[in-house]
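Regression report. Comparing outputs from two consecutive submissions.

Submission 1:
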Amino acid sequence: MSDINVKEMEEIANSDTETLIKAAAKSVFLKNGLAGTRLQEIADCAGICRTALHYYFRNKDKLFDVVFTEAFTEIHKRVNGFAQSDAPVVEMMKMFAADFYDIAIKDPGIDLFIINEFNQNPERMRKIVCGENMQGVRRGFLHYIEKAVENGEIKGDPIQIMITIVSLCAHPFAAKSMIQNMFDINDAKYEILMLQRKAYILELIEKIFKQ
């Protein structure tokens, strides 16, 4: 179970076997992706026999769909967590960026995992996410940006604005390994760098979009 970090171990210590399997599967899938993962690796990581794993999840694909859906739901929460806010759109952008960094710093592998799986299995990913979650993204963040452009609160193409904000947030985590090698920093220093970048991005959003 060494692939699951200590915090996760503490959180699932008193949980049921299914939760334990999903935590182990998330750890292995994030490291190896769907194609590179074997069920035996997940069973070993969870500390259970493969028969027990099959009792809860009949095959790797079903387990992957559950793990990926939960991972994407976290992205969805970042986007729409402020949907009821009456704040100006620039403040909403900053709220989105702050939430994104807070969640991604805790689990920096999620963004690269999602990007890789979308690239390698586009049809499968589309079926998983193009339901209520993806509709919620379109109704949420993009809706408020479109409204702000219409009202003259900000200027530009709403889709380009949304891509810019998401890219500013997601890229440092998707490119974690590259950044660490480029600047010769370990995980602890990378986390400090991302905390600093969070403050930098919030200031940058203010400068770019504030009228």
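Submission 2:
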Amino acid sequence: MKAVIQRVSRGSVKVGNDYYKEIGQGLVVLLGVHKNDTEADAKKLAEKICNLRIFNDEYEKLNLSIKDVNGEMLIISQFTIYGDCKRGNRPSFTESAGAELGNKLYEVFVNDCKKILGEERVKTGIFGAMMSVEIINEGPVTIIAQTNHTIEE
């Protein structure tokens, strides 16, 4: 499992004309699920991200977590994170989980984040949908966190 984590002053996701979610200060998490990931990977990564100290303290040091700043989280499924560009000009997505496993582990990750941060502080996109995502990155601070599965060399 791999996540691109961006510290934001605000973020939003829109799907068509009917679905819109937004957050203020917090994190936008673009989440990719690997074909070999497990529920344990999802839980481990949720715990890691919720405790990641990437917000400034009073001395402008990255020393506070999203919990410490009472921030919100917007989680977007992103199978393209496991895109492999080593050969040719068109990425291969063979390392990404299929829809069934990807959705299952995405939901485990989301639910664990809600348990840690509180239901009202976690928003999501729609798994598998074409989405428009707005990210106002603060810092800029962008971190990549992942479990053990990587694309083979």
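Expected: both submissions complete independently.
Actual: both completed, but the second showed a warning that disappeared on reload.
Relevant detail on submission 2: The chain has a mean pLDDT of 94.
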